[in-house]
Design a protein that fits this description.
By secondary structure, the protein is α/β, with parallel strands linked by helices. The chain is built from ten helices and twelve strands. Helix 4 (99-105) packs parallel to helix 6 (147-159) and helix 6 runs parallel beside helix 7. Bound molecules: adenosine-5'-triphosphate. This is Putative ABC transporter ATP-binding protein.
């Protein structure tokens, strides 16, 4: 079976800025990955390479068995579901769309419905909305939804095209603790019931639910560690990634981080001793 993602010696350089350096990464069948790293560590750039929106300066990339350079990227993208808060840039168009039309539009990778919708599409959207517990939102327009509801609708939209790879780029950003747990429980259901591989980008390790199998840690464009989550989520690797003394503990099969040294504590000590 082909790898879901394969990157060999991938670097991304823009101007004199090295954004990604020597990335070697393989995602195999049945693996679900979380990508963690500080702001500016290169997470979005890495996703942009996976989706073919950015071409690496150096190295080889293959996604869903398609080597880049010999692949029709628009065709490949039909097999990749991408949910990002940047979709909100289109919120002017989305605003007046109904929940069900937004979900259906995922089949055509469009914002707005311009193609002929068949009964099968409506049925598939109904099923997705029921399984995401958003069927009660039918008829409502996007601008009247809460942030958590909007996020669920966009995830439903991404699944409408039955992608083989689903990228969730910081899906919990701006959500309260309850809405965040709902998104995590949805992610668990997707892994359990949809035939797709999940790539989940976040800043928070407690979002690594039991079903996520692997973790990639990025720091300044380089991989700190990548592999099965139990091997990667160590105090040492996390502290290096987040440049802060962190300790990991596990609760209900989820990792949590606590801070073991306050940032700037040395500085405060100096001021006090003056
Ligand atoms: N086209 C570009 N030209 C120059 N620098 C760029 C370009 N694209 C990204 N960068 C820089 O590369 C670094 C990595 O950016 P990227 O958006 O991939 O980080 P990130 O980990 O996704 O950050 P965040 O968590 O804040 O979203 C940043 O310092 C960014 O400013």
């Amino acid at each position: 079976m082909e790898n879901i993602i394969s990157m060999k010696n991938v670097s991304l350089i823009r101007g004199n800025r090295v954004i990604l350096k020597d990335i070697n990464w393989e995602v195999k069948e049945k693996e679900h990955w979380v990508i963690l790293g500080l702001n500016g560590s290169g997470k979005t750039s890495l996703l942009n390479i996976v989706t073919g929106y950015q071409y690496p300066t150096k190295g080889e990339v293959s996604v869903l068995g398609h080597p880049f350079g010999q692949t029709n990227l628009p065709e490949l993208r039909k097999q990749i579901g991408f949910v990002s808060s940047s979709l909100d840039r289109f919120s002017q168009t989305l605003k007046s769309e109904t929940v069900e039309d937004i979900v259906i539009s995922g089949k055509f990778a469009s914002i707005g419905l311009y193609e002929k919708v068949i009964n099968e599409d409506r049925e598939q959207a109904e099923q997705l909305m029921a399984s995401f517990r958003i069927d009660h939102l039918k008829g409502k327009t996007y601008d009247t939804l809460s942030e958590g509801e909007k996020r669920k609708v966009l995830i439903g939209r991404a699944l409408m095209a039955k992608p083989k790879l689903l990228i969730l780029d910081e899906p919990s950003i701006g959500l309260d603790i309850l809405a965040r747990e709902e998104i995590l429980s949805l992610t668990k259901e997707i892994i359990a019931h949809q035939q797709c591989h999940v790539l989940y980008v976040t800043h928070y390790i407690e979002e690594i639910v039991e079903e996520m199998t692997h973790v990639l840690l990025l720091k300044e464009g380089q991989i700190v560690a990548a592999g099965p989550k139990e091997e990667v989520l160590t105090d040492e690797f996390l502290s290096e990634t987040f440049q802060l003394a962190l300790k990991v503990h596990w609760e209900n099969n989820r990792p949590w981080a606590s801070i073991h040294q306050n940032i700037g504590s040395t500085k405060f000590a100096k001021v006090e001793s003056k």
